[in-house]
Design goal:
The complex is a heterodimer of chains A (420) and B (72).
Chain A lengths: L1 H20 L2 E8 H4 L7 E4 L11 H13 L6 H9 L4 E4 L5 E2 L11 E7 L5 E5 L15 H24 L3 E2 H10 L9 H18 L3 H12 L6 H12 L11 E7 L2 E6 L7 E4 L4 E4 L12 E2 L3 H4 L11 H6 L5 H12 L2 E10 L5 E7 L1 H7 L4 E7 L7 E8 L2 H14 L4
Helix pairs in contact in A: 3-4, 3-5, 5-7, 6-7, 7-8, 13-14
Chain B lengths: L1 H5 L7 H11 L3 E5 L2 H9 L3 E5 L9 H10 L2
Parallel strand pairs in B: 1-2
Classes of the chains: A alpha+beta (420), B alpha+beta (72).
Chain lengths: 420, 72
């Protein structure tokens, strides 16, 4: 028995070492087909664990239909949905392809993806570009305005960002996030500071590589008007940090938390790429005018990768303004949430600290043993999508990861280690 | 109680003084577990500290046993 505990101790120490030792750098924007060679015709990567068309929620179906039209695989949304129902598309989780995507998480061949390289281990991770607020595909939007914006991202913004990044040495993300935490971001529902810092880093390179002044103006305006622009970069960063932690024998550290609007899934280092799932929870939060809880879709998106690395809900104390925005309470409640997440994590990140907590580090490396023992479920900050396809975002809130995922993973880890 | 009877009249043993203070003074409460008790007391102006606690593994004895084998 002591051998098992020793294996766990050493495995988790290695997992923590890899997480904290990561060096994520935003280096490029390329098409998803270039980034992910296996991403073929008719293939759609989505958020969360694997799911079939039959079990997809409304906004996920709406996004699938929209992206199929965008890729030219169907003439209209109705035809796209019919093709999906007939099994014409191959659905796979982003996580199986070094990728992540917010909310519905659509990733297909022609979309531009941001490339984050973990220069400590050499792996790369990918995420599409944030579309902005309002009616957008990540929340299930799929009308002409949504598809037109996606085409602009593909034809204009993506190539321009790629050129700017390639002309520079890339943008080192660890220090940028560290500054963002001291400026009130938690990198899930608040990315105001990091989006601004990113634009400050990118502006000169964009100006020198973008030949057309009108195009440059449009690009700068688009980024500057989107407080959540950095979210997708934070997500790719999270994936780049956690991928090298996969498959450390005996490690009980969570390497992914993700949801597809129907199921919530986690992956655990010592259990490789196996998903442990449970029905997804409904977020509790605040709604935009004209909407209420009856309009809400259950929890969705790969964005929980930021909580997996100690940001988002885990770093709530850094962003007290978010606590009010998502309906999680007062600023003092924000500090309490971060303190509580320490109960289920192994370490504090010494490089990502929170001024309001006397510069304590964000709680990092979720240990499934501690989650099961304490019954404290990871806290997640999230946007809320309308449950019907094509509507979009209706609010923001908080949600808990279902404990059942962690319990079934613990049984599997025990079995893997010969303990039951 | 037997010690009290050995002291001069009108003096209480230290333990008994603490007990009297506990009974006669305002209560100060540490509540462990279900927060409803703490909330009720706080609503009546009682000083109360809530300690969050629940049975390991939500009371699942088999899971708790597994945890005991996998935890330091």
């Amino acid at each position: 028995m002591s051998d098992v505990r020793q294996v766990l101790r050493e495995a988790n120490a290695e997992a923590v070492h890899r997480m904290l030792g990561a060096e994520p750098v935003l280096i490029d924007v390329v098409t998803a087909a270039d980034a992910i060679p296996d991403l073929g015709e008719g293939m759609i990567l989505h958020a969360g664990p694997p799911i079939s068309w039959e079990r997809m929620c409304g906004p996920m179906r709406g996004a699938v239909a929209g992206i199929a039209v965008f890729e030219g695989w169907a003439n209209d949304l109705e035809a796209a949905a019919a093709l999906a129902a007939r099994g014409a598309f191959q659905f796979c989780p982003n996580h199986d392809f070094s990728a992540v995507g917010p909310m519905t998480g659509m990733t297909t061949a022609s979309q531009p993806v941001m490339v984050v390289e973990n220069q400590a281990s050499g792996n790369r991770a990918f995420c599409t570009i944030n579309e902005g607020l309002g009616k957008v595909m990540r929340f299930g939007g799929n009308d002409t305005s949504v598809l037109t914006r996606l085409a602009w991202l593909r034809d204009v913004l993506g190539p321009a960002l790629g050129s700017a990044l390639r002309s520079s040495e890339g943008i080192e993300l660890k220090s940028l996030v560290a500054r963002g935490l001291t400026m009130g971001d938690e990198m899930h529902q608040r990315n105001v500071a990091c989006s601004s810092l990113l634009l400050r880093n990118l502006a000169a390179a964009l100006a020198s590589t973008c030949g057309d002044r009108a195009t440059l103006t449009t690009i700068l305006s688009f980024i500057a008007s989107n407080d959540q622009f950095f979210l997708n970069i934070a997500m790719a960063m999270g994936k780049a940090i956690t991928d090298p932690v996969r498959d450390i024998k005996g490690a009980s550290v969570v390497t992914a938390m993700s949801r597809n609007g129907t199921d919530f899934g986690i992956r655990v280092s010592g259990l490789g790429d196996e998903w442990f799932t449970a029905p997804v929870e409904m977020p509790e939060g605040l709604y935009f005018p004209g909407f209420s809880a009856v309009d809400a879709n259950p929890d969705m998106g790969d964005s929980t990768i930021v909580e997996t690395i100690g940001l988002g809900g885990f770093a709530m104390a850094a962003a007290p303004a978010v606590a009010g925005f998502v309906g999680a309470g007062a600023p003092s409640d924000a500090a309490h949430i971060t303190h509580t997440m320490r109960e289920i994590t192994l370490v504090e990140n010494p490089e990502w600290t929170i001024p309001a907590l006397d510069y304590q580090g964000v709680p990092t490396a979720i240990d499934i043993r501690r989650v099961v023992e304490t019954g404290i479920a990871p806290m997640i900050n999230t946007g809320i999508a309308h449950r019907e396809p094509g509507v979009g975002q209706v609010g923001a809130g908080v949600v808990r990861a279902p404990l059942a995922c962690f319990e079934s993973a613990l049984w599997a880890l025990g079995k893997r280690l010969g303990v039951s | 109680m037997s010690k009290t009877s050995e002291l001069p009249s009108g003096q209480l043993a230290p333990q008994s003084a603490d007990l009297a203070s506990l009974i006669q003074g305002s209560p100060r409460v540490v509540n462990v577990g279900l927060s409803g008790f703490a909330e009720t007391l706080a609503a009546q102006g009682v000083a109360v500290i809530q300690v969050e606690w629940s049975p390991p593994a939500r009371g699942d004895a088999d899971l708790a046993m597994l945890l005991s084998k996998l935890s330091d």
